[in-house]
Specification:
CATH topology of the largest domain: Rossmann fold
Shape: elongated
Largest sheet: 12 strands, mixed
CATH superfamily of the largest domain: NAD(P)-binding Rossmann-like Domain
Helix content: 25-40%
Number of strands: 18
Structural class: alpha/beta
CATH architecture of the largest domain: 3-Layer(aba) Sandwich
Mean pLDDT: 91
Low-confidence stretches: none
């Protein structure tokens, strides 16, 4: 009996694309045995065809013209791995209109133009896989779509960016500055030449918006999710958090309560004994709570050539299986009008505890001025530590608060930062210490 063949085309031979090729080459027999068919790389498109990527390729399948893959009638699956909104969206939409199935790891594209792409795949009866768009090799997308599909998911705490997590880990373990940790991350290839999306939190926000879209089958735009990066975190904050029994992580947070949801991304103090606090280096993790399953934890390498490549190849195999069974293109639309009336809670209405660091003049009455403003704005202080002078004329003051409303905190800090006795803007880090008994 002849072995059936599924022809694929890959657009983009960067880090992830190279990983995909390596996996398909090295695990060819394993994949063929599990699928019952051969996956053949028919074409690869990339603007750079000269760099040695450590893989052997037949030059005849290489091209600098991605449109050749889109227009190739023999290709059943187009794998888009160039990233960014354009020209990726154009290639994907043209391929869909020609009846080709899509695999992508493009989180920025899916978080902004997802509805258009998903609707096109539904209209033209093709499949789209995007497991590699969130948490790299960790099957979080598949878990939410399938494994946890019987659950009402009410909570997600996610460490979704390996670059930011590596930097915070280095700062925590070695006491070095943000800038020094970033330089090391670049040298090791963990950070891009322009790491802005990673360190300003936007990459994490793109991923959180995709997860929310899956849960509620409606679009959540990244711009609607409060986002804060890690560039303002200093070694003194890391050290003080440690003394208090916390670690600082860049956290994606989702909570549903009373018909509204919180969705935010920011540095967060979390209990040092929690599992998430021990997710270090470039690793990712997602703590997901469902009403039936309870608390679950997904952990693994969130980025890199082989982990991300593994996620992409898993989508290729899944869609290939559907093609062989004649069941591809039978998916329900991801976004259904009026499917969910859930609303995002206004950021100003959210509540949490806070870590505050002030730099103030070394004179009597400063602490009472600050605490008076906090009290006037309904913010209760749980602890205060005032350290010795580190800079001439200035002393650092550290405070932890009880739970407070965000709008009250914003108002209080505007008043405090306007005082003549405060020297720099207040450093604020939110605290999450309720982990549903996840130790």
């Amino acid at each position: 009996m002849d072995t059936k063949t599924i022809n694929i085309g890959i657009i983009g031979l960067g880090t992830i694309g190279t990983g995909v090729v390596k996996i398909l080459q090295e695990n060819q027999k394993i994949i063929q045995n599990r699928l019952g068919a051969k996956i053949k790389i028919s074409r690869i498109a990339d603007l750079d065809l000269t760099t040695d990527r450590g893989i052997s390729l037949n030059p005849s399948i290489l091209t600098t013209q991605a449109i050749e893959i889109v227009n190739d009638s023999d290709i059943s699956i187009v794998v888009e791995l160039i990233g960014g909104e354009e020209p990726a969206a154009t290639y994907i939409l043209k391929a869909i209109k020609q009846g080709k199935n899509i695999v992508t790891a493009n989180k920025s594209l899916l978080s902004t133009r997802g509805p258009e792409i998903y609707q096109a795949s539904y209209d033209h009866k093709v499949d789209i896989g995007f497991e590699g768009s969130v948490c790299g090799g960790i099957p979080v997308i598949r878990a939410i779509k399938d494994g946890l599909s019987a659950n009402r998911i009410s909570l997600i705490y996610g460490i979704l960016n390996g670059t930011a997590n590596y930097i915070l880990t280095k700062m925590s373990d070695e006491g070095i500055s943000f800038n020094k940790a970033l330089i090391e991350a670049k040298k090791l290839g963990y950070a891009e030449a322009d790491p802005a999306l990673d360190v300003n939190g936007k990459d994490t926000t793109h991923k959180l918006s995709i997860l929310l879209s899956l849960i509620y089958r409606k679009q959540f735009r990244p711009d609607d999710i409060y986002t804060e990066g890690i560039t303002h975190i200093e070694p003194v904050d890391i050290e003080f958090a440690r003394e208090l029994g916390y670690r600082i992580k860049l956290l994606a947070i989702f909570k549903e309560e009373d018909g509204e949801i919180e969705a935010r991304v920011h540095p967060t103090l979390i209990p040092a004994e929690s599992l998430l606090a021990h997710v270090n280096g470039v690793y990712n993790a997602a703590f997901i709570a469902g009403d039936a399953v309870g608390s679950t934890m997904f952990y693994g390498q969130g980025a890199g050539m082989m982990p991300a490549g593994s996620a992409v190849v898993s989508d290729i195999i899944s869609i290939s299986r559907n093609i062989l069974n004649g069941s591809n293109g039978q998916n329900i639309p991801l976004f259904t009008k009026n499917y969910s009336t859930i609303k995002l809670k206004n950021k100003n209405q959210t509540k949490c505890k806070y870590y505050l660091r002030f730099s103030a003049q070394d004179r009597p009455g400063v602490l009472s001025q600050i605490s008076g403003i906090l009290g006037k704005n309904n913010i209760s202080i749980s602890s205060v530590i005032q350290r010795g002078r580190q800079v001439k004329g200035a002393v650092p003051i550290f405070m932890l608060t009880h739970e407070a409303v965000e709008k009250d905190m914003d108002k209080a800090l505007q008043e405090i930062d306007a005082l003549l006795v405060t020297l720099d803007g207040t450093t604020v880090v939110r605290i999450e210490d309720q982990f549903n008994n996840l130790a």
